[in-house]
């Protein structure tokens, strides 16, 4: 372990150390881990319609691995999905970090079965302090905090603890570490509070700009008559045991997983990463440079994560070997720089396996554009959908100020607005192409099919309605509570899936027992009105009823899923028969066709500028490729491309942009040496100041002055080499998939050589 002064302590070779292995709080037991995941996996399969793993061949089969997963959009369900995917498709067991406040009840019992590592967070143990606090001299002495009726050092507040300001609707309350307790009414913090909201709370002044600077510097105190603000105090949290447990598991070749955003959320963009993930990786390598630790990014991509029978794609990125340079920096009193650089790189790695947009409206726009851009007219595999969403999101970020994008954005949003007005989905607009007789026949057929399925749904719907109703009511209530306690959540949907599963786990067996007991009692009383023969033991009824109840539940879920899809398809058919709405849906179909042509033409125009492999990878109908496998030239629609010899005006290419990956390192305290890892809360990194630019267009990860180190080996979207690697893997994977299924759902270039086949096979062998 590094010493407390920030310099590297001499660590003897692993074989020479007489280290006594510490007793683990939740040890990893293989059979318990597998049994628990198998049981919970049944519930995951029932909740999700499809969980599609992607890139599991990249996961190292041996050696220590630190998995960093994001976005954390589904609270405890994320952990189940990740652990189950790794166990089934990569053969690895992983210990996840879990907040100490969650280690109770069923969640606590479950975390013990899978060997989780509990983490205490200062904010989880924060309690309201006595009196009020304010800044007596915010300009000349901003770290001095004075109180009225406070009891610092008298059972409230301690050196190394933290002080928290109240949260607002728009942001989390600011917090700082306590450096000194001067008196019961005065403390000094390690650094001053920053930000407009925090300074207004502590001074009551209105002359503070958006950058958190005072306009009238002649006034040194608070606003006249200001009484102070309420606050919370948290004790000092020693994370040494947490890091020791992590280091021990990595040192023994195990896997550790962390959601580096800290808590779960339902935002569409990645949040700032916490310092703990970098401290774990660098600390483990500083202790033993030869353990071979790798960092693997995991993208948790959900389609309506909170809804029952939704879909998900769990994507694994290429593993990262941490440069020895960063480890040396970490060992030689440059911890902040090393941690910040690794956080930026980790953020960039996660951006390559997730779909991140600034807000929900942009995400809806990207998904609409992806649906409009599908020349094959076929349903695309989920991994291809995720890849298209990701590329379109990056392209929109780069070209969003282009006049053509602005016009098309407005048109697509108007199209989405019309869909919502008619309560239709994009794929249902195609029903307007059908003739009236075909519409009538389809409607009658689907109604008959729906009535048939209803026979299988009704028993389960009636018997287990309490589970469905309670799950929805409780999940909505918990979502409101989570939203009220957080400033990063939008609607609190990240907790809904967890509570739906929790309610089902406890209430469904209770109902099974209740119904089985009633039927068993009836058999005991009068042989179920004489329908059960006398030779049948009455107690055997209970044993028969349990599997029967489970079967009825499963049938109701499966039939209900199909029936709901059919039910949703009836509305557009009825609209096609209604004279008052028929014209509107036909107009909507024409609008969609026009928008689809515009989106396709614009993508074909701008795509080659951003993606070198565009001509080989773009979607095409069957037979729309040249003999050499390249895409055939697109038809000219209106504006011709410059490569076609057109002399039309083309705007200058905007500068290449990347997602801003420095937002995580910006949150690191500048005067914190990180020499004592036990004093660093694993989730304690503050988010970047609102006064800093939130633009995601600055480059990082190897660029000059970016603070990141080159990551061209795994940036699948930010370099020509990375694009080529990603394209090669996608082509090979799709070829293998077509060979197995015999149905080419997506036309991909077949110009790969035997050398590429050998390289792909060699890559799989490397990680298997």
From TrEMBL:
The chain crosses the membrane at residues 450-474, 495-515, 535-557. It comes from Sodiomyces alkalinus (strain CBS 110278 / VKM F-3762 / F11) (Alkaliphilic filamentous fungus). InterPro entries: GPAT/DAPAT, Plipid/glycerol_acylTrfase. Residues 749-760 have a biased composition (Acidic residues). GO terms for molecular function: glycerol-3-phosphate O-acyltransferase activity; glycerone-phosphate O-acyltransferase activity. Residues 735-748 have a biased composition (Basic and acidic residues). One of its GO terms (biological process) is phospholipid biosynthetic process. This is Acyltransferase. Residues 1-21, 624-720, 735-768 are annotated as: Disordered. The keyword Transferase applies. Keywords: Acyltransferase, Membrane, Transferase, Transmembrane, Transmembrane helix.
């Amino acid at each position: 372990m590094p010493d407390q002064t920030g310099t590297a302590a001499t660590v003897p070779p692993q074989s020479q150390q007489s280290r006594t292995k510490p007793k683990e709080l939740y040890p990893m037991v293989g059979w318990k881990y597998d049994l628990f995941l198998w049981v919970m996996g049944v519930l995951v399969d029932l909740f999700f319609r499809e969980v599609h793993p992607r890139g599991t061949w990249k996961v190292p089969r041996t050696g220590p691995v630190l998995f960093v997963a994001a976005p954390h959009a589904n609270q405890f369900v994320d952990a189940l999905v990740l652990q189950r995917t790794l166990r089934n498709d990569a053969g690895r067991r992983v210990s996840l970090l879990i907040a100490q406040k969650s280690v109770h009840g069923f969640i606590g019992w479950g975390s013990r079965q899978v060997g989780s590592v509990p983490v205490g967070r200062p904010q989880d143990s924060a309690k309201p302090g006595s009196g009020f606090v304010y800044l007596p001299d915010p300009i000349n002495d901003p770290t001095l905090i004075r109180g009225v009726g406070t009891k610092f050092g008298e059972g409230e507040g301690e050196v190394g603890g933290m002080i928290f300001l109240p949260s607002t609707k728009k942001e989390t309350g600011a917090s700082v570490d306590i450096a000194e307790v001067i008196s019961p009414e005065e403390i000094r913090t390690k650094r001053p509070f920053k930000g407009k909201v925090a300074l207004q709370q502590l001074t009551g002044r209105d002359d503070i700009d958006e950058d958190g600077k005072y306009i009238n510097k002649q006034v040194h105190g608070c606003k006249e008559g200001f009484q102070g603000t309420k606050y919370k105090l948290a004790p000092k949290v020693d994370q040494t045991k947490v890091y020791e447990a992590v280091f021990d598991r990595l040192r023994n070749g195990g896997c550790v997983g962390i959601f580096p955003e800290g808590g779960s959320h339902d935002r569409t963009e990645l949040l700032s990463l916490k310092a703990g993930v970098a401290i774990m990786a660098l600390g483990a390598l500083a202790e033993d440079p030869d353990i071979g630790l790798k960092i693997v990014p995991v993208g948790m991509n959900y389609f309506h994560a909170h809804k029952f029978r939704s879909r998900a794609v769990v994507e694994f990125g290429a593993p990262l070997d941490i440069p020895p340079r960063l480890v040396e920096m970490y060992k030689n009193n440059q911890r902040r720089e090393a941690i910040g650089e690794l956080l930026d790189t980790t953020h960039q790695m996660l951006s390559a396996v997730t779909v991140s947009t600034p807000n929900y409206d942009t995400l809806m726009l990207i998904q609409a554009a992806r649906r409009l851009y599908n020349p094959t007219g076929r349903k695309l595999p989920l991994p291809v959908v995720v890849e298209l969403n990701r590329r379109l999101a990056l392209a929109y970020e780069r070209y969003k100020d282009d006049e053509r994008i602005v016009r098309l954005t407005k048109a697509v949003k108007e199209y989405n607005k019309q869909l919502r007005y008619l309560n239709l989905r994009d794929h249902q607009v195609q029903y307007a192409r059908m003739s009236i007789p075909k519409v009538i026949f389809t409607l009658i057929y689907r109604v008959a099919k729906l009535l048939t399925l209803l026979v299988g749904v009704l028993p389960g719907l009636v018997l287990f309605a309490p589970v469905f109703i309670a799950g929805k009511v409780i999940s909505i209530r918990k979502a409101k509570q989570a939203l009220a306690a957080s400033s990063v959540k939008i609607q609190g949907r990240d907790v809904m899936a967890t509570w739906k599963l929790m309610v089902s786990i406890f209430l469904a067996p209770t109902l099974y027992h209740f119904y089985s007991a009633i039927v068993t009692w009836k058999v005991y009383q009068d042989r179920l009105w004489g329908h059960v023969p006398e030779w049948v033991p009455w107690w055997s009824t209970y044993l028969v009823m349990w599997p029967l109840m489970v079967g009825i539940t499963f049938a109701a879920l499966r039939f209900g899923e199909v029936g709901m899809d059919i039910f949703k398809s009836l509305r557009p058919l009825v609209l096609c028969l209604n004279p008052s709405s028929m014209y509107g849906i036909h107009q909507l179909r024409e609008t969609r066709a026009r928008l689809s042509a515009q989106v396709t033409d614009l993508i074909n125009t701008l795509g080659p500028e951003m993606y070198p492999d565009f001509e080989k990878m773009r979607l095409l109908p069957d037979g729309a490729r040249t003999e050499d496998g390249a895409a055939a030239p697109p038809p000219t629609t209106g504006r011709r491309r410059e490569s076609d010899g057109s002399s039309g005006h083309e705007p200058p290419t905007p500068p290449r942009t990347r997602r801003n990956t420095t937002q995580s390192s910006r949150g690191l305290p500048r005067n914190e040496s990180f020499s004592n890892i036990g004093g660093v809360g694993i989730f304690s990194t503050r988010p970047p100041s609102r006064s800093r630019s939130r633009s995601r267009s600055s480059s990082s990860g190897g660029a000059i002055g970016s603070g990141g180190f080159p990551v061209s080996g795994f940036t699948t979207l930010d370099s020509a080499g990375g694009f080529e690697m990603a394209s090669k893997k996608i082509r090979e994977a799709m070829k293998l998939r077509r060979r197995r299924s015999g149905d080419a759902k997506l036309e991909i270039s077949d110009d790969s050589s035997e050398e590429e086949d050998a390289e792909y096979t060699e890559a799989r062998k490397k990680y298997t």
